Amino acid sequence: MRWAVATALALCLGAAAIAWWRRDPAPYALHESPAVTVTVRPAPSDYPEAEEVAGEADLLIKAYVQRLLTGDVDDLAALGAPWFTNKEKAAEQLIADYRSVADEPLEATVADPVTPDLAVVELRFTGDKRQTLNLSRADGVWWLELGDGDPVKP
């Protein structure tokens, strides 16, 4: 009986450790709706960093497009780097500028990073509308440079 309890406890602890290790460090996630169709890819590069950054920033880019679609200023502002200010005003403007084209499939190209923890993403919406997003990373989490702030001062 003791070995069964010990085995069950070990399995539970092991599962919890694996779940913790595999967790996404981002404090944001995609909502169940609305669905978005975003293809995220790295720009052509001879360096593996572009592909790594594209994979790491995928969730943020898709969450950004989803927040545009919902039109929720506070929800979009929450994707902004915590050390930036005036995120709500910037989010309001982005929603006004891009919400109408965010419901179509779009492509996001992550440029080859020149500086660690900073990235540039070009979004190509249907109808040739384009947008450039600047991203900053702190503690393994990518954020939008939204509002006012220093991108390298987390």
Outline:
The protein has four helices and five strands.
Description:
The protein is an alpha+beta fold. The protein has four helices and five strands, in the order H-E-H-H-H-E-E-E-E. The protein has a five-stranded mixed sheet, with helices on one face. The protein is globular, with a radius of gyration of 19 Å. The model is unreliable at 8-23 (pLDDT under 50).
What amount of the residues lies in strands? 15-25%
Output the strand order for the largest sheet.
Answer: 1-2-3-4-5
Largest sheet: 5 strands, mixed
Low-confidence stretches: 8-23
Coarse morphology: globular
Helix content: 25-40%
Distance between the termini: 52 Å
Please tally the β strands and state the result: 5
- Any idea what the radius of gyration is? 19 Å
Helix count from the secondary structure assignment: 4
Q: What is the residue-averaged pLDDT?
A: 85
Instruction: Give, in order, the helices and strands.
Output: HEHHHEEEE
Class inferred from helices and paired strands: alpha+beta
